[in-house]
Design brief:
This protein is an all-alpha fold and 168 residues long. 57% of the residues lie in helices and 2% in strands. It has one domain. Strands 1-2 form a two-stranded antiparallel sheet. InterPro entries: ABC-3C_MC5.
């Protein structure tokens, strides 16, 4: 019998679910698509959050969370940019699917942002009642609060602090 490893980073349904969880937790204005994809990257691979350039306050908070570290993971991760760009087509398919199902606003999508519709808010709310992995929940809450800080305000800050760049 052959077995295959499942990688949530490369699964469209998993990406769509993470998008809904991220958007449900986001308190600010509509997220840019680039910011959503970066958030999703780190929620899907919490062991790589330690590679982000963050303030000492957030670095200390990150250390207290007990998230897995890259060196302790069973999987050897490819370079961050390679994994991020491998995820991009999957993320795009998930995003288009959510827009087509009217879970995400087409108007926001047309201007390069993402926002939940009323249907999307209900769906995300229903999803929040389903048990999710503890590691993913901790990573999601941490990343949403980190990305809302001034240090990550612009896309250039986002790129320089994470080392990731989104190409449309």
């Amino acid at each position: 019998m052959k077995s295959r490893l499942w990688y949530p980073q490369l699964d469209v349904a998993s990406a769509a679910r993470r998008f809904l969880r991220i958007l449900d937790g986001w308190q600010g204005d509509a997220l840019s698509i680039e910011r959503l994809f970066v958030l999703d990257y780190f929620v899907a691979t919490p062991a790589l959050i330690g590679d982000i350039k963050m303030t000492n306050t957030y670095r200390n908070r990150y250390g207290e969370l007990g998230l897995p570290k890259k060196k302790d993971e069973f999987v050897v991760f490819p370079p961050a940019t390679l994994l991020f760009h491998s995820m991009t087509p999957i993320q795009k398919r998930a995003l288009v699917s959510l827009v087509a199902k009217e879970i995400l606003s087409k108007e926001s999508y047309d201007v390069g942002a993402v926002a939940l519709t009323n249907i999307g808010r209900r769906t995300a709310s229903d999803l929040s009642n389903v048990h999710q992995g503890e590691t993913e929940t901790i990573a999601l809450d941490f990343m949403v609060s980190l990305m809302a800080t001034d240090e990550f305000a612009s896309n250039s800050d986002l790129r320089s602090r994470t080392g990731l760049r989104y190409y449309d």
